[in-house]
Amino acid sequence: MRLYHYYEREKGPFRSISDLSDEDGEKVLEQIRKDKPDVFLAKRPSDYLQKRRRFEAILRNEFIKIGGRPERDTPHYMVVEEVPFFEKWYEHTASIIIDTDELDTSMLSFTYGDSHPTFSGNVKDGKEYRNRLYSFEEIQNIIDKYGLPQEWNPDFKYGPECYVEVQVWTDRGLEKWLE
């Protein structure tokens, strides 16, 4: 399985606002809104960082519940396979492709769709992958069953899922891209 990490070329990969203090994170978001108002990230709501921290705590707890042993407080984010939608997220989008053979898959968790709507409680359509975090083995069964969302829902017409999100709970395997 190929995992993609999309990022702003000038900032570099695997830079997470979650690794910053609340104050510094808010400054970064404000700077993006000011300097690049047309990129997707600039359109985040004012309480985005607060919500993100809440969802990341849920993800971490759910990862531990399924037997995960996170080495990071918050994950690095990737997606399963190429997702053209992410080309719009940044002004100068770049990406890294990593095969899961290069990573310790026990340090990965997955949501079928973005983790925020997956765990928001706002989507009440009864689909089995709502409010669920999957292991590497489990997500393969879900993808076999439903396909990749970016193929059947690239423009969100059929729900909030348009990719499979990957949470990477370690820096191991990513060292060559980390500062």
From TrEMBL:
Keywords linked to the UniProt accession: Plasmid
Name by which UniProt lists this protein: Uncharacterized protein
